[in-house]
Each structure stands twice: as C-alpha cells, then as structure tokens.
Amino acid sequence: MKRRQFIQTSAQLGAALGASFMPFAARAASYDVIVVGGGMAGATVAKYLRMWSNNQISVALIEKDATYVSNIMSNEVITGKRPSVSSLTYTYGTLSSRYGINRLQGEVTGIDAINKSVTYASAAGSSVLTYGRLVLAPGLDFDLMPGMASASQYDTVIPHAWKAGSQTSLLRAQLTQMADGTNFVMTIPLSPYRCPPGPYERACVVADWLKTNKPNSKVILLDANATIQAQAVNFQNAFNGAYGYRVDYRPGCTVTNLQIAAGAHTVNYTQNGTPQTLRAAVLNPIPPQRAPSLLVNSGLIDGRFAPVNLLTYESTLKSSIHVIGDACISGMPKAGHIGNQEGKTCANAIVNLLKGNQYALAESSPVLNSACFTPVTSTKATWLSAVYQYSNGTMVPSAQNGYAQPRVATSASTDNYADMNKWFSTLMGDTFA
Ligand SMILES: Cc1cc2nc3c(=O)[nH]c(=O)nc-3n(C[C@H](O)[C@H](O)[C@H](O)COP(=O)(O)OP(=O)(O)OC[C@H]3O[C@@H](n4cnc5c(N)ncnc54)[C@H](O)[C@@H]3O)c2cc1C
Hints:
There is one protein chain. It contains 12 helices and 24 strands. It starts with a helix and ends with a helix. It has 2 domains: 3-140 and 291-364, 3-Layer(bba) Sandwich (FAD/NAD(P)-binding domain), CATH 3.50.50.60; 144-289, 3-Layer(bba) Sandwich (FAD/NAD(P)-binding domain), CATH 3.50.50.60. Helix content is 30%, strand content 28%. Strand 21 (367-375) and strand 22 form a beta hairpin. By secondary structure, it is α/β, with parallel strands linked by helices. The longest helix is centred in the last third of the chain and has 19 residues, at 336-354. Flavin-adenine dinucleotide binds at residues 36-42, 62-65, 68, 71-72, 74-75, 107-108, 137-139, 162, 194-195, 198, 292, 294, 325-326, 334-337, 339, 372.
C-alpha cells in the first residue's frame, strides 16, 4: 500500500470523522470492528484501524494465547543461534495502552453472520459479542500426515514447528539429542503453504549446524513440489555445498505413510511414482495447510482458503466479514510481511466503508511490498523482495524502478544478515508497537 496514499486517507478521514462519523456502538459487548487473531495480520489491522480513524472506531482484538511467538526467525531457535523462543515473543500491552484496542484473551468458536456476532470462550466463560465488521486473521491449521493417529503427535514426537512455540523448542531438543550419523528428515507439502522459502531455509541452517556438531549426519528434504518454490538458485547452490554443507534434496516426493517410533521413524513415500523408504532419527514433517475450521464451519472457504475482494479483503461469500493473512486467497505468498500489508489495506478499506466513502475504495489501487530474508548459515543470509499491484481483481507482481519482480539476492552475505535483523525488528515494531 502506498504510504502517501494512507497518510492522505488518514488526514482526510480525521476531518470527515470529526464532522459526521458516528461510531457503530459504545456498548460493552459491541464493537465497530472485532478482529480475531493477534498475529502478523490481526495485530496490524487492529492498530491501523485505530490510528487511521483517529481512534473513532472501537476495536476488540480477540486472541486465544496470552502472547504471540513469531514464526519469523524461529529457525534460529532450532539451531541455537537464538537461545529460546522468548526472544521472539510479543505482548499486546502496547496495542492496548497506546492505541486503545480492547484486547480480549479467548477463542472465537462460532460466527453468526446474519446477526453479526461471534461466540467467544474465555477463562470467564462463554459470551456473545456483536460487530459492525468482523476481521478474521486466525492463521492456519495443519492436516494430519498419512499414518498419524492424532494432531497431538506434532506436540510430542514429530513436531512440524510451523507455528512457533513449544514445538520449536522440541525440535531443537531432538536435533541436539540425535546420534551422529543419523538423518534429520523434513517433508514439504504442495504449494500453497506458509512461507515458501521457509522449509529450504530450515534445511540450510540445520545442515550448517550439523556440519560442526554432528558431521556424519545429514538433512534429507522430501519435497512434494517438482522444484524449489522460492530463491531456487540460491538454495540449490547451498544444497550443493556453497557453504560447506550439503542437503539431500529430493523433489516430487509424496509421503504415503509415517511409522512413528521416537528416535527411529520410518518414512514411506513415492518419488515420481516410485515407492521409497527411509529412516529418520528426527522427523520434521511440514504438513499440508488450510484455513482453520472456524472459517470452514462459517461457510467462508473455497477449497482450502477464503476467497476475498482484494481491495477490501471482504469475503466474497459473506458480507461484512473480512479475512486477512495466511487464511485468505490473495495470490501472494503466505508471509508475515504480506499479512502486515494486508492488515493495512483492510484497515484503510474498513475506515472508508464505515464512513460511507465508496468513492475512495473505487479509486484505490493498493500496492503491497514484501521482503523475506533467509539465513543460510549462522552468519550469512540471502533475501527476496517483491512488489504487488492490484489489477482487475488480482495482485500481480509489479516492476518498480525498472526491477523485474521478485528480486532475489545474488548471493548470501553477512551484510544481508545484519539487514535481516533490522528488517525483522522494524516489521515487528510496526505490527506490535
Ligand atoms: C519457520 C518460519 C519462518 C518464516 N519466516 C518468514 C519470513 O522470513 N518472512 C515472512 O514474511 N514470513 C515468514 N513466515 C510466515 C509468517 O510467519 C506467517 O505468514 C504469518 O505469521 C501469518 O500471519 P497470520 O496473522 O495470518 O497468522 P499468525 O501469525 O499465525 O496469527 C494467527 C493468530 O490467530 C490466533 N487464533 C487462531 N484462531 C483463533 C480463534 N478462533 N480465536 C482467537 N485467536 C485465534 C492464533 O493463536 C495466532 O496468534 C515464516 C513462517 C515460518 C513457519
């Protein structure tokens, strides 16, 4: 989204709201906007709704967890570069104190789109809250892999660690405890999945760690896709030994069964149709992903994710309900930086919708940008950036300043690593502070 456009919108809105805007309601259980999910997309939309309405729109942010743990950078916890997930943990205090967001801890368990209400379960019990607009930013759920008995196996024995937190710590512990000479096996689902470069990044930093700590062990990467899904040249170079380690990369692999036995798993899969078997001391399946069942049960899904109008992020299936972040179909990568930008686009749209300014929406043509830095060793990183422009109902890569999109770093460097840390703290500050 163009910064200048937002600043103008905000200034115009302030004047307009002061003159004519009537908040939807000030009752305790009723809000102009309820946001469900306080991750990258949800925290951003809540903050910018308040900022760009000059605090005129009442906003409740419902998040089930007490704090948010960033997925971004969580691969560094697995290798011990970061000591624990606590350095990736964000609280909601500033969103409440600085922006006046009503933060509620609990889980939204049902949506009544006709009466515009949600059922919300908290430590205090179950209650119903009503909204003028509902924004859903709940992230993703994960399928069971073939052979699994229950999702709890992800928490106890084969962590996907694709939602950062206790599974990230478990995967770290398993890596440090595996015997030298055994395999660390990862699986990648078919696209689209959360963070296209993320699995390849994880394979690289784990292989880099093994190089020093367990030199006879290796990373085997079973990819359901036919090719590497992002930064293909950079990752292929890394896998081939550019940084002193190798990754055994196997494309076109479909997992057919997992036999789970702590420390000695068996993975059955086909590669391009041929049955194969291998043993894994550590098994890190990244499962197929989909929008959470809350959206499925509410009739908001087409396939695995939620279709939306990309000017407003309003569902194309239910009015007054918006879906942002990984749960929606945007045509852009499922990424935290993109979720942050979708949150701003959605906030701008809702502010305009609530003051009846259809004209501003019709005229708007959002431009979103995204950067993704990728550590490939404990000191070097690459990056990818992309700019997307709204065009006829879709988001298309847009050449900016003469650069074709996406742009990719030509090699990994320590300078990129330093830039990565700056980018990360800026993004998280923009989202949570
Ligand atoms: C290893 C890894 C590395 C990554 N690296 C990058 C990167 O470098 N750059 C990048 O841009 N992206 C990266 N990503 C992707 C990024 O983390 C996600 O795309 C982003 O977090 C999605 O944001 P979201 O708001 O949609 O979901 P989330 O951030 O997952 O937030 C969803 C929130 O909703 C809450 N919630 C869900 N259901 C309910 C409910 N019913 N009631 C209340 N609360 C609910 C959840 O508890 C959660 O806090 C990475 C991901 C991984 C796994």
